[in-house]
């Protein structure tokens, strides 16, 4: 017979896994839709998965999405000019389309313009710039670490 605390813990884990999954989807959509912020959603995903399931947390923290979009921000490692330009180019194109489509909605245009300016200021002023070779080396090292972890025998994993 299960006690009330175990049922409460199981229900909380289910809610955390659900919220983590939803924020993961929103963060992934944020990669191509600049109005959705990728990093905050991915940080919330990591927090929910960490509390909800060890296996889901390990999966997310080892995913390419986390390593490419969150780790440089979280660790304050910085990004190369190439990465910054590619991100800002995508943001500019997509926000430009949104700006153009909001021809009859001046408030919407102002909001889109402010979001675009915030992206520019953040990436050009606050995100440290590193050489491309350093960025590629950091990603190569992370890939090696992940491959080593995958080759190790896995013990009993927590059930979802």
Can you describe this structure?
The two termini are 20 Å apart. The chain is flat and about 55 Å long. Helix 2 runs antiparallel to helix 3 (54-61), helix 2 (38-52) crosses helix 4 (64-74) and helix 5 packs antiparallel against helix 6. It has 160 residues and is an all-alpha fold. It is built from 7 helices and no strands. The model is unreliable at 1-5 (pLDDT under 50). It folds into 2 domains: 1-75, no CATH class; 77-151, no CATH class.
| Percent strand | under 5%
- In the predicted model, the low-confidence regions spanning at least 5 consecutive residues are 1-5
Order of helices and strands: HHHHHHH
Rounded average pLDDT? 80
Q: Count helical runs.
A: 7
Biggest beta-sheet profile: none
* Domain module tally: 2
Distance between the termini: 20 Å
> How many β-strand runs?
0
In oligomeric terms, what are we looking at?
Answer: single chain
Structural class by helix and strand composition: mainly alpha
What value does the Rg take, in angstroms? 19 Å
Helical content class? over 70%
The dominant shape is flat
Main attributes of the structure:
160 residues; mainly alpha; 2 domains; disordered N terminus
Gist?
The protein is mostly helical. It has 7 helices and no strands. The two termini are 20 Å apart.
Write the layout of secondary structure elements.
Blueprint: H1 4-32, H2 38-52, H3 54-61, H4 64-74, H5 81-101, H6 106-126, H7 132-151
């Amino acid at each position: 017979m299960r006690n009330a605390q175990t049922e409460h813990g199981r229900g909380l884990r289910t809610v955390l896994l659900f919220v983590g999954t939803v924020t993961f989807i929103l963060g992934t959509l944020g990669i191509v839709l600049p109005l959705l912020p990728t990093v905050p959603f991915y940080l919330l995903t990591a927090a929910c998965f960490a509390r909800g399931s060890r296996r889901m947390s390990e999966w997310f923290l080892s995913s390419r999405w986390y390593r490419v979009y969150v780790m440089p921000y979280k660790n304050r490692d910085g990004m190369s000019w190439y990465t910054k330009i590619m991100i800002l180019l995508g943001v500019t194109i997509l926000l430009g389309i949104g700006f153009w489509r909001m021809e009859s909605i001046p408030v919407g245009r102002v909001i889109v313009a402010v979001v675009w300016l915030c992206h520019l200021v953040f990436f050009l002023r606050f995100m440290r710039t590193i050489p491309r070779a350093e960025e590629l080396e950091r990603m190569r090292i992370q890939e090696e670490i992940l491959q080593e972890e995958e080759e190790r025998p896995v013990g009993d994993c927590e059930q979802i």
